[in-house]
Amino acid sequence: MLAARDDLDGAVRTYEQLLAIDPDHPFGNYNYACVALVRSELPRAEALVAAALRARPDFLQALVVQSNVMDALGKLDAAVAALEAVLRLQPDDPGAWYNLGLLFQRQGRADEAEPAVRRALEADPGNTDTLAPVARVLREQGFAEQALVPLRAANERDPGNWAPRSLELLLMNFTDGIPAARLATPRRLRVGYLSGDLMMHSVSFFLIPILEHNDRSRVGVFCYS
Question: What distance in Å separates the CA atoms of residue 34 and residue 65, rounded to the nearest whole number?
């Protein structure tokens, strides 16, 4: 309760008193680890959460915190191992699958990241936050066309979220064709080009054909240097 009221110093004193009486108390070590993580006291958080798990190896919440601590310490293999332990105990945990997929992605393990984030999506199909990571993993594997499918689903569910919309526009550059209907707009578009090289520079020469082929009746062009 003290931690919930942002009295972290009071929470630390309480947990230290508890652990002085019972050093192996799983919840005392776990809660103290959470506070230490918030305070960026990572070595202490690592030791405390390890103590909680020694006392109670099937402590799901402690395994999740251990993954977060290991991630913050840069020990990605240990963070992955903690989440895999969570999934052995709770195979359909969408959060664990999602975080595991993101860790795999950061490790460059795209072949493992994709099924992990897909499992997260299957476990929680209404979560639009999972759709964009699926698309990013597919993009990194070179499957731009397939990556557009979850992105467009994310855009339909959350049209105000600009991040998947921006990624969709990027990936459309790597597909064979864009249906004309997706480019249709009832108003004249305003397109801006921003570069520090709009002068006697190769970038300007490469840009000239693009500018010349803009349909000025449909597109207003603005250049910013």
Answer: 7
Per-residue pLDDT tens over the stretch 117-135: 888 888 887 777 777 777 7
So where are the chain's domains?
Answer: 8-184, 185-225
Identify the burial level of 146 via C-beta atoms within 10 angstroms of its C-beta, where 0-12 means exposed, 13-18 middle and 19 or more buried. middle
pLDDT of residue 191: 85
Of the candidates 85, 169, 98, the one whose C-alpha atom is nearest the C-alpha of residue 128 is 98
User: Considering Cα of 72, then 73, then 75, then 79, what sign does the dihedral take?
Assistant: negative
Let me know: does 85 contact 100? Beta carbons within 8 Å.
no
Task: Say which residue, 165 or 106, is predicted with more confidence.
Answer: 106
Residue 75 and residue 42 in contact, taking contact as beta carbons nearer than 8 Å:
no
Stretch 166-191: mean pLDDT:
72
Q: How far apart are CA 27 and CA 65, in angstroms?
A: 12
Q: Which pTM was predicted?
A: 0.69
Supply the CATH classification number for the domain 8-184: 1.25.40.10
pLDDT, position 4: 45
Is residue 172 a contact partner of residue 178, using CB atoms and an 8 Å limit? yes
